[in-house]
SnoaL-like domain-containing protein
Amino acid sequence: MNDRHVALIRAFYDALGQADFPAMESCYHPEVSFGDPIFQEVEGRNRVMRMWRLQLGMRTGLTSAYREVTADDFSGSARRTVGYTFAATGREVVHEIDTLFRFEAGLIVRHHDDFDFRRWSRMALGRPHGPLFGWTPRWRKTIRDGATRRLDEYEPA
């Protein structure tokens, strides 16, 4: 167990829960990459932080609880339960996220979130789209393309 890396993960999640972007950014390596089922791959600290600003701006009433934080000298993991109102639909979302981290120079250089895309789409999008289409590759591509387009167009305040 590497206590310094466990503390880094906890600091990141505490900052995320408070939307403290400078504190979040201080946990990331300049060459950090982020991936999840929607954004897939986002490269570089500036772009990853834009993605977080975009995501947190699309959600209201964010709750986030993390647990099972472990880390060694090279990698770490954690589980999170996240709840929010998805702004695009006004629907409540509560889902479980499993996260893997890699570290370099005492900072997070790789951050990968994994969650059940189909379950998320049922909650976030509702009927008929979520249950009917949430599992299809075409629907996933539509969601991913839209997220990438919003990230490309996003200008933080």
The chain has one domain: 3-115. DSSP finds six helices and six strands in the chain.
